[in-house]
Amino acid sequence: MAFPEGFLWGAATAAHQVEGNNVASDFWALEHTPGSFFAEPSGDACDHYRLFRQDIALLAELGFNSYRFSIEWARVEPEDGRFSRAAIEHYRDVLQACHDHGLTPVVTLHHFTSPRWLTELGGWEYDKTPERFAAYCGKVMSELGPLVPYACTINEANIGPLIRDVLTAAPQDGREPAGAPVGVTDQAARDGEDALSPVDALPADQDRPKVFLFTFSEQGVSIVKRAHTAARQAIRDASPATQVGLTLALQDIQPEPGGEKQAERIWAETFEDFVPALDGDDFLGVQSYTRSLVGSDGPLPVPDGAETTQMGYEFYPQAMENVLRRATTAGLPLIVTEHGIGTADDSRRVEFVRQGLAGLERAVTDGVDVRGYLHWSAFDNYEWMLGYRPTFGLIAVDRDTQRRTPKESARYLGALAQRNALA
């Protein structure tokens, strides 16, 4: 494989999914609400907050040169306007550990979870959220900016419209639409386990919490875009050398006969409508897991007989190549910030990576400007509403002992990274 010099090879995590005990966040509160639609609480998660040094050393040992992780807003600003020096110094240590081990940090400043106090104010429907978010980003970058070469403001800024489509799609044959966002789907019981269905467990529209994942309204989507642009300016002011962008969840939208207009609508709502907010960004993070088939009434179920993952997604690694080619219309360099598969069969993860990277190489050969591939996820971690059942990790985690065990997929991808770094 031939990739550009300086290409980022790595894996990704999100703070709430791996750190453990994120007690000041809105999701922690939801997990512990009676009758919660979360399958289980996050608890200690992977205890990454304590074990980050050994985890970063392991990623470097496996052959990676980059690590994408998030800084948890609820830790840095546990109360409105009060910043935690201890939390900032913790993330300084995480960043320094990356540099010490030769890993380029790709930092995400918001990965789905927010401080409880923000949600109590109205969350991502609250008109003052952009300035609150920008103040947090500015504080972090004024302290840590020289250690942060890449900063993603918001993870999957377009997730609200995607989830809205899933929740409003008419059930067909009792199956959820293909390509539903992570943690909001009916799990395919591929391994014989009972399927989980968080979609059915979600509260009614009027009772849904005002958290980032459920920011569906036109006002809410506008606030997310404003938050990105305000944060970008705050980052630039504090750390001009840092490359700034955001990430989008981009499914490979494929219309069936009669579904062309619906497919155009979905692509417009989840990509084209966000392009104006990217004006002035340095890169776009692309996150792709599968394709979404679309009929005349909207998203369709996975085709009969298709291989599915633990999330109910169709096994379709070629989606990444197709999405990268379409995303070039944003006019920005691209970084694959997530691409992965929930499966208990690691040989299928190896095949998913192999096919995905073959498509990525074809895109790069054809001139698509891709600067990195960051696999989701580094570890088997907390998968939001579905708890710990889905396993996306390159590295297995025994949650009783917190012992880490690299899988064959980790060694396969790490070896590719090493070979390409030496090419």
TrEMBL record:
Coiled coil: none annotated. SUPFAM superfamilies: (Trans)glycosidases. InterPro entries: GH (IPR017853), Glyco_hydro_1 (IPR001360). Pfam families: Glyco_hydro_1. Keywords: Glycosidase, Hydrolase. Belongs to the glycosyl hydrolase 1 family. This is Beta-glucosidase.
